[in-house]
Input
Amino acid sequence: MGITSKQNQEAAAQMRALYGENHRITDGNYDQSLAVKCINGTFVGQKKGDVIAFRGIPFVGRQPVGEYRWKAPVPAVPDDGVYEAYYFGTVPCQNGDRTQIGSLYPSSEECLYLNVWKRADTGAEKKPVIVWIHGGAFEIGSTAEPREEGIAYIQENPDIVFASLEYRLGVFGFLRLSHLPDGKDYPDAQNLGILDQMQALKWIHENIAFFGGDPDNVTIIGESAGAASVTLLPLIEGSHRYFHRVIAQSGSPLFTRSTEEAIACTNELMELLGCKTVAELQKLDAAALLKASPALAYRIWAERDGKLLPSAPFAAYANGAAKDIPLLMGCNKDEGGFLAFSMGVEGCTAFAADFKAQTLQALPEENKTLVESFCENAKDVGPEYSRELRLLDQAVFIAPLFRLSENQTMGGGKAYAYFFTPESSVPLMRCAHTSEISTVFNHPEETFMTGRQFDETYSKTLRRMWIQFAKTGNPSLTAEQSPDGKAHEWPLYAPENKQVMVFDEFNIHPEKQAERQFVDWDNIYCQTKYYCI
Output
């Protein structure tokens, strides 16, 4: 199996059909009931039913092209113009594929846009704001992803305002340059994608009230690299004014690299491209940079640079860096099923074996024995789901979830943990990475990854718990609040009992680590401090 070129071509055509360009409106001919005046312009949305969508709003004063490539985002500037906000902006440059169909939407380096969805009402009460940051290993993905589109989400949940944002990806957003001979003028290039997210959140803070949102009640939510992002953002100095709660799905601060690893990646790229300086890189077009990028696949992460991000993010949580930010976080039962499906069994098995080899190489001798012990005793394995793939599940997703929950609690903060279990009907997928996204955003029709629609009442209940957390900081529901008519008391994570809310499709309930053994505490939990990914 695996994604075929034909599937990619058909998906790209589907996404191109959605593309359009937003223009400045100069003749005054627009529906003022669909217009919102912001600091950097008045933006005119489109109405569908009782929802207004504003797509492709720029949140910077200059797009990161030409001399602004590899530079920190430029803040938006005042503008009295009126602009269409009908279409998603061009998305960040990337080598996309069908597993994230939004990655195949037309792209360019002119990519720093965001989107807002709101109910078409005129109520004076400010609504909680939920801001989505997409995943894709910091290499692919976009806000044009159909399963993450906001209309159906707001139709079901008119009591919130929803936004999503773009950020630079791959070598455009995460490429250390300051060590190069002329690199001193590019001090932020290693974490530009994170800085883009910060700039978008600043724009939202300054403008979301114009859309009926409450800038003092903002929840950031992300999946995979998006979850890594939303768990790294609280560690940035001054960030807490822009958001107040975090939901992290299948990702954590593990999705980072050291400065040494970042330098090695840059040097490898430079050699491939035959370049020695940033000036030479600047002469290359985006296509040339993208062509060389696959050599760095799954190694382009945010950098623990000790400048924007701490060198030890998990320790920062333990020291109380985010104690005023409640966290809701979790992962899926068979995260590696995504790789089995997208790469095919043979490719995935080889990838997982390579992951194990690299992990062993990075660990002290005494820890290597623990990894081997886990693999020897791994459960629920077979020809289609190897022992090494179970290691990847544990080391990359499940153990870091528990590490973050433990450290957030240790630092005086609140953490709620979950474990998502419904299985896809797509061969090889199981309960894979990304399989919860269409449920979270009310897109049951998006079944490419799930193969089927999950139970409707279950899905509504999960969404309502996410919304309840965004509103109050506590995801628990009374029987009256819950779509399934049952009270769901979600316990805070506590080191003494390690309770996790299990989202079985027909039985949402809390369980203790001691009951299900979510993580191999003896062999794998201890490895998280080495940031092996």
About this structure: The CA atoms of residues 36 and 210 lie 6 Å apart.
